[in-house]
């Protein structure tokens, strides 16, 4: 192969720039020409592309966001859109396309594969860590670090005022950011999709837990981590419900897109660097419709469809420790 193209698609993730840099540097190393399409799949449709050399990606790995821009592109689900993308890729003589994004972007990649004969390689770029086949996704470590930092700050004021807080974190439909940040910051309660699917929490049970934890510990501060989409109306609605129905003062805090910015964590820069090179090497190896992943420290190739059809489970032991040992939701043998 001689020419490869790269794009970043869907929700941006810290480390996407580092992955892009790695793709370009590896491409140069192997004597390939590297093109980038801007604004994700939209750029494929608009034929909005640039040639990238090593000099173009200097000093970008320390920044979140993506210098080639990301976007959502509703139109891409249509067959004629994928046909147009295939035409534009062929006109430029692209042999392999590297897609840095999340599960939506990989669905788009499989859709494109129905209409285009070139090789397609995915690179997992999402803060949610919700892709099967890789130990971590690019951006996840940074999002957890940001959420932990916010939880630490909330703890200071919660502690001073003996207050209950609900901190809403991202994660799409997975509890990775929620569980990891809750554990890293020692929060009292988690409302995660995996727990909610198992046994949905009622407000009454939550109030019981708050009161029990406060009584046992002799401390009023109670910091709860709520994964997005896990409560109707989110953290604000739950806080209002606690106040209105149980006269329990509670403050909501929505982290939102703060979780995607600032300097990428070392783990994300390193993961992105390894995966970017791995993706180029998979392309050179003739592979297609696979995601470049890292499993137990070894580079792996995961069929793209597996990445969203199979499930990446939460670490059961961490979940048990955080949920049943540190802040037991059931009364334990000591009558607590
Ligand atoms: P992420 O990659 O972060 O999960 P999205 O779910 O927003 O982000 O998906 C990114 C883009 O991928 C969408 O805007 C759309 O262009 C494309 N895409 C998602 N699902 C499909 C699909 N089933 N068929 C074709 N394209 C899709």
Automatic annotation (TrEMBL):
- The superkingdom listed in its UniProt entry is Bacteria
Q: Which InterPro entries match?
A: ATP_PFK (IPR022953), ATP_PFK_prok-type (IPR012003), Phosphofructokinase_CS (IPR015912), Phosphofructokinase_dom (IPR000023), PKF_sf (IPR035966)
* Catalytic reaction list: beta-D-fructose 6-phosphate + ATP = beta-D-fructose 1,6-bisphosphate + ADP + H(+)
Q: Which organism is it from?
A: Pseudidiomarina salinarum
Q: Where is the Phosphofructokinase domain?
A: 3-282
Q: Does the keyword Ribosomal protein apply?
A: no
Keywords in alphabetical order: Allosteric enzyme, ATP-binding, Cytoplasm, Glycolysis, Kinase, Magnesium, Metal-binding, Nucleotide-binding, Transferase
An example Pfam family from this entry, by short name, is: PFK
Q: Where in the cell is it found?
A: Cytoplasm
Gene3D superfamilies named among the record's database cross-references: 3.40.50.450, Phosphofructokinase domain
User: Pathway membership of this protein?
Assistant: Carbohydrate degradation; glycolysis; D-glyceraldehyde 3-phosphate and glycerone phosphate from D-glucose: step 3/4
Enzyme Commission number: 2.7.1.11
Q: Which GO terms describe its cellular component?
A: 6-phosphofructokinase complex
**Per UniProt, what is one GO molecular function of this protein?**
monosaccharide binding
Q: Which cofactor does it need?
A: Mg(2+)
Name of the featured protein = 6-phosphofructokinase
Q: Which family does it belong to?
A: Belongs to the phosphofructokinase type A (PFKA) family.
Any Gene Ontology biological process? fructose 6-phosphate metabolic process
């Amino acid at each position: 192969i001689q020419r490869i193209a790269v794009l970043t698609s869907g929700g941006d993730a810290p480390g996407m720039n580092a992955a892009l840099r790695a793709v370009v540097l590896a491409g140069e190393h192997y004597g390939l020409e590297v093109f980038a399409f801007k604004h994700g799949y939209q750029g494929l449709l608009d034929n909005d592309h640039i040639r990238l050399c090593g000099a173009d990606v200097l000093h970008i790995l320390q920044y979140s966001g993506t210098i080639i821009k990301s976007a959502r592109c509703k139109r891409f689900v249509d067959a004629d859109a994928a046909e147009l993308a295939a035409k534009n890729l062929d006109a430029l003589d692209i042999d392999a396309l590297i897609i840095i994004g999340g599960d939506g972007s990989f669905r788009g990649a499989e859709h494109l594969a129905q209409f285009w004969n070139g090789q397609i390689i995915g690179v997992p770029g999402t803060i949610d860590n919700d892709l099967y086949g890789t130990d971590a996704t690019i951006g996840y470590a940074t999002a957890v670090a940001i959420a932990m930092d916010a939880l630490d700050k909330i703890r200071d004021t919660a502690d001073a005022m003996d207050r209950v807080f609900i901190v809403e974190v991202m994660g799409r439909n997975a509890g990775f950011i929620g569980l990891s940040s809750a554990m890293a910051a020692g929060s009292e309660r988690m409302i995660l999709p995996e727990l909610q699917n198992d046994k949905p929490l009622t407000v009454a049970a939550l109030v019981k837990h708050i009161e029990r934890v406060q009584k046992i510990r002799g401390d009023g501060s109670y910091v709860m981590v709520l994964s997005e989409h896990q409560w109707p109306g989110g953290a604000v609605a739950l806080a209002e419900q606690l106040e209105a129905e149980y006269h329990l003062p509670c403050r909501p805090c929505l982290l939102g897109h703060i979780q995607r910015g600032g300097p990428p964590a070392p783990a994300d820069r390193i993961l992105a660097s390894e995966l970017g090179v791995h993706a180029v090497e998979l392309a050179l190896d003739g592979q297609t419709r696979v995601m470049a992943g890292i499993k137990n420290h070894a580079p792996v190739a995961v069929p793209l469809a597996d990445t969203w059809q199979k499930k990446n489970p939460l670490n059961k032991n961490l979940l048990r420790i955080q949920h049943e040992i540190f802040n037991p939701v059931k009364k334990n043998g000591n009558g607590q």
